[in-house]
Amino acid sequence: MEKSTVTAVHDDDLIGFLKSMGLLSDVQAGRTRCRFCQGVITLENLNAIFPDSGTIRVSCDLPACVKMLMHHISTRQQP
Amino acid sequence: MSELVKYLLLSLGPAAVILFILLLVPEKIEKWSALLWKGFAGLGGIFRCAHKRYLKHDLQGRVNEFVKTLRRQVPSVGPTKLRVEWVDPSVPRKSIIDNDTVVLRLRRDDPTEHNFVHGAYLFVSGTLLRRPKRYLSPPQKEAVDLFVCTKLLEQEKPAVVEAFLEQYLHPKTEDAKSRVSIYVDDFAIIDSGSLFFPVFVQELEYLGDKVFGKRKDQLVITEVNGLIDFLKPIANRTIGDQGDLTFDGEYCRFGIVIVGKPSKLLTSVEPYVNYIRNDLVRANTETIYIIARAENAGRVEEICGRFSDDYACERKVNFKKLLRYSDRKELALQHLVVLRKRGVSIIQPSESGSQ
User: Fold this and answer.
1) What ipTM does the predicted assembly reach?
2) Chains A and B: how many Cβ contacts under 8 Å?
3) What would the mean pLDDT of B134-156 be, rounded to a whole number?
4) Which of A24, B11, B294, B334 is surrounded by the most beta carbons within 10 Å?
5) How confident is the model at residue B352 (pLDDT cuts 50, 70, 90)?
6) Beta-ladder partners of B291
7) A3: which chain B residues are within 8 Å (Cβ-Cβ)?
């Protein structure tokens, strides 16, 4: 049986994880932007953290950005 | 083997029987364990960490149960199981980049079930039906993801379906007549005739299986549009309608045979056998979908037996379908058999005569 892993971070670990990614101070200061809508990312609206063009990007929880994230993932998995 | 199982069960007693049954339905166990962890998490204090276990088992149990149901209709859908893995908060940044890991945030406070919606959506987009979606256009892909995700939510979390549709399918800010919305509406029509998963997705699977010498995206996209247009009237058909039931595309070549007319069945199955032999086999039809009322399953077997040298039986499945008569509607148990031509070429030529 093939397994597909969804990697997740729980709210309890979010601060520590963002710190490891070097993103915490920027997110707290409102300097991080959503990869898709360019809106300001906060600890409240952050939805995903993912690599893109050699760096780490984040996206927000707006439905349009969730859809774009799914499209982004599905496109990069093309054969 | 079955004797051995019987012997073991009898000698080990009822506890072993229960354990054996539970092992057959791991998704159910996972869903129940999720409820248990949810209860613990509600206690707070030292049980706060139980919330992570609840989220993991809830998402895994429900999504994997949906995949299991889906595979009964389309067995060729990969036997993929979802596994939720918590990221180590101290993982180095380089490791996330090198492993190309997408990390989804799951919330503690989630009254609108976004955790489940986003997790399920991510699984459907990234993994489930990846092969059949390989050659589709972006709107076709997005519509398949949204529609399948809606079906998953309908089955596993019906309470969030409405919010999902409102937020993702028909957002007020988007054009209601977008290609994606039109495709999703079309899929709903096809699904109303119970043809979305057993026929449409199955044909996409066969399409995805084919290795195209040189991808001709537009041709495949057009063919999928044709497939949708072909299936819609069939899904809506009234008993007795005489529409075309053969799809003769560049890559998808299939026929639907509806075994239903009592006058034909009373005498023999020969009219169906002759139709398949003269119209479908001769036209090099790759897949034959034979649909009948469940009580006529025996006659369908008889028909299939006549073509066993050339066609392999891919699957048999029973499902409920709303039959439309001119004066009434009736929910009836249907029997579907899928016959696939033996030795269908996997590699498709780069250029065809039509180009």
Assistant:
1) 0.96
2) 153
3) 90
4) B334
5) very low
6) B258, B336
7) 80-83
